Structures are given as structure tokens and as C-alpha cells.
Input
Amino acid sequence: MAECSVFLCFLQTLISVKMLEKIGEFNMEKVIEDFEAMTSDAERIQKETLKKILEQNRSAEYLQLVGLGGRTDPESFKRFVPLVTHKDLEPYIQRIADGDSSPVLTGRPITTISLSSGTTQGRSKFVPFNDELMENTMQIYQTSFAFRNREFPIGNGKALQFIYGSKQFQTKGGLAAGTATTNVYRCSKFKETMKAMQTPCCSPDELVSSTFAHSIVQAFRTFELLWEELCADIRDGTLSSRITVPSIRAAMSKLLKPNPELADSVYRKCLGLSNWYGLIPALFPNAKYIYGVMTGSMEPYVNKLRHYAVDLPLLSADYGSSEGWIAANVNPKVPIEMTTYVVLPNIGYFEFIPIRDGSEFLPVGLTEVKIGEEYEVVVTNFAGLYRYRLGDVVKVMGFHNSTPELKFVCRSNLLLNINIDKNTEKDLQISVEEAAKLLAAEKLEVVDFSSHVDLSTDPGHYVIFWELSGEASQEVLSECCNCLDKSFVDAGYMSSRKVNGIGPLELRILRKGTFQKMLHHFLAQGSAVNQFKTPRCVGVNNSKESIHDETLYSISKGGDKYQNQASTSASPLVHYLSLDFVSSHHNLFN
Output
């Protein structure tokens, strides 16, 4: 319940926000000038960056094993060093985590391990993290902030940030390990950089706050449930018993003082809202914008954010991953749906594998990509990842000087595929958004969604999981289910449906709180809220410990069987699922 503490802390500051003293130096124009110069000579910068990486890690065992022999030019690098995935490097990374201090992947020892979110493959991955990646992070933050602040000057104020950190732990070899965001937020350099940019968090250092749109929505949904309790805490100057972490309680106890006037003001504002429309500007009338990752898998939460924000600008944050940063958003005024990211040529060496008609080709360099084409991103960074296939598919939308502007498309391995059909995460999102329009008449919305390819039936079929904000009529759900089926416009899917090569789509309505339980499961595994991304496609090969098995597969086993109807029905099916693992109610619409 960290959101409660963050809200309390920020609401308390509303009545007495002092002007901040200038701490450090942040020259916005200098940052922009350097960025423009660097992106105007991207090819040269890329060669220099690769040379720096390879010289710094010349003694690495991995580079010696592949036969690079100290060469630092791009041609030799591509000839000797193979394209890899995490699976290829996992044995080397595990050795590092287990305490091998020899130059395994890098010339200097790795002292910190980052954990991926685990929401793509069902389990977290170990990823090396070092000071250079921290420097890259700060460069990305400063670059995007410079362009953002030029368009939306914030002056001297405070930022309400929902930045959730997970607990760090020690690996077998004694290395500090935590999510990538935790490693960043726990670093003093992060706090120094935020202060230099004059956007410190409203909370004391003991409180950590959001990167993804999902986390922002999650925070305000929590507010909807607990706002009266929060008002009572502000009025009495006490902290709810819901807050159980000793360090958070201690930090908040230093700040909370009885404030009936503020409590009454917040209470009146909340009572005056209709369905929480305009909640954010009502609480924070001086807010300039809302900032977080809002593209890719976060796009489904944008509509809910707009509901809370009304006319406040929504600005998407930068493009990166647990493996490192790639690009910055330097055009903050464009609509979320048109957001692109400009690659910084000095934070890594980048290659792009062309994807055309489902086929792959040889990688091309950063400045060799073509506008309108889609590519899989390949990263070489300062922390021991060489020609690492990131698994992200991007589309080149244009160029900023000589470096490309990228639009995130999807994860390359998140595909709904049974026959000759190929539907991506984006295709799924479009289908869900189209069908969700039918819920508007009943004033309902899709809280969250996921999907699964069920091959236990003959023929196999798509399963779409929905959690709704309330109960929908059977008639509307039947229409939604048919709309989902028809909204997958991939030629392979449509032709396979016509000849019964793919069975009718199945819609499963989950009881309220399903995705909240999924989130809590990930948190229990050591992940952080702001790293959580709802799995959009649940694979059949995930481990029994994964959240997919525990919340989706196990739950679905309690429902009536689909295969008895699938082979004879030409229309989609709708199932109601129970979360008690004992019984379930379902309806079939023919």
C-alpha cells in the first residue's frame, strides 16, 4: 500500500510548497546542443562507441572465445561475434552471479545484477548492471527532460512519482541483485540528478515511487478505494494500519500532522467528481503533465489515464529495457499514439534485423535502417551483452538528424499463432479496444486482459481473458465475443477461421481482482510494481510456478470444457470463470 503514503506525503505539501534551492547544475540548452551534435554524426559516434566497449572489455573471456582477438572495428565484430539471446549468455551470467570475479563478460568485475520483470517469459532473468549503464540512464533522463522542459516548463516544484523498488538481495556469489529500476532508484546519482533537474520526489528518501502507465493507473485506482481513509489520516495526522513497512511508517510519522482543512478540501473535491473523471487536476490543480511509459504494452491504460487527467497532457517516457536504454522521447508534444523514440548513438552499439513477410535478414547498422521498415533490435552494451537480440520489434518512422526515430511495435515472441495466422500484441490490443466499445452503453470498461492459444481442442482456438469493471449482460458479451473474433484481420487467421482450421474464439470473463492477484504474485516473487507488465499472451510452456498457471490455467480448469462445443459451433463462446477454484458459471452463445 505504498501508494497511500505517497498520496499522503504529496497532499501534505499542497499547503506549503517552498521554492527549492538550486542544487547542482543542469544546463538544458547545453544538453540539447550536445544531443543535436551527437545525432548529426551518428555513424562516427557508433564506431567510437563500439571501439570503446571492445577496448574496455578486451580481456573478457567471452570475446576471446569467439576469436575477436582484440579487434574493435564493426566488420570484424560482426564476423566473429554471433547474434545471441539471453539463453546463450545465461551460463556466463550465472557464473558471475555465483561469484566468478574473473573477466567473464567484461574487463572489470560486475558488482550488481538486474532482474527482468519476468512477465514476458514467466520468470525473471539475470542481467549484468554496472556504472556505465547507470551513466546511460542519467543521460537518457537528462536528455528527455531537457526537451520536455522546453515545451512544458515546470520551474521550481515537486514531482509526484510512484517509483516502486523491490528488495535487493545477495546472489550466491555475494552480488547485489534487484530489479533494474531498484538498482537505479537506490543509487545516489539518481537522486542527485533529479535534484539538479529540479524535479525531486515529494517523498523522503525512505519512500520509493512510476515508470509505467499501469502503475499510475494502479495508484489512482487504489485512491478510489481508500480516499475516505486517506482523508481521515490527513485529518487526524495518523497513518493507516494498512501501512506495515516499518521504514515507511517511520518516514511518514515525521511528516504527518493533523490537517482538518486539507482533509475537508480533498473530501469535497472527491465528492464532487463523477465516476472519478478529472481526479488528477482536481487534486493537483498546478500539475503540468503526466509522465510515464505509455506505448507498447502500456497503451491499453492510456484511456483510463485520460479519464483521470482530462486535458492534462500525457507524455510518454523513454525506450529501454532491463538490458539497458535505447532511445529518448524528444518530441513530447505529439499524441501518445504517435510517440517515437530517438536512439542515442553513444550509449551502446545498435544493429537492426529487418523483418519482412515474417522472414529475417542480416542485421544492418543504426544509420542504415529505412523509413517504414520493421526491425528486431540488437544491442551491444557496456555491461557484457554483445549482439544481444532484445526481442523488441520496432518500426522506423523517420530520422532525427542521422539517427532513427523508432516506434515500438511489439515483442517478437508474443504471438498468437495456431495455423498460418500471426497476430501480435498490437493486433490483440486493437481487437480488445474495438470490442470494448460495445461495453460503453452499459458504462463498463475492460480493467485488463490477456490471451492464450488453446491447442487442447481440435482445431485449436484463441482464448481471450477479460476482467470487467462490473457485470455485463449476456447479450452484450456475446456481441463483444463476436467482435473480438472479427477484429483479428490477419489474413492467415481469417482464412483459417473460414475453413475451420482455427476454432471459434473463446472469451473468458474473470472475477474482479484477478489481475490484482497476478500483480501480487509477481511482487511476492521479488518484482517491483513499476516493472510489472500484464502478460498479454500466456504460453503453454510456462512453469508451474508462473503466475499464468496459478491464476489463468488453474482457474480455467474449474470451468466447463470448451472442446465439446468447439468443433460444431461456428460462433465464438463466452465463459464466466470463478476464482474460488471450485466452481464456475458459464454461458455459451451460439
The first helix runs from residue 2 to 13.
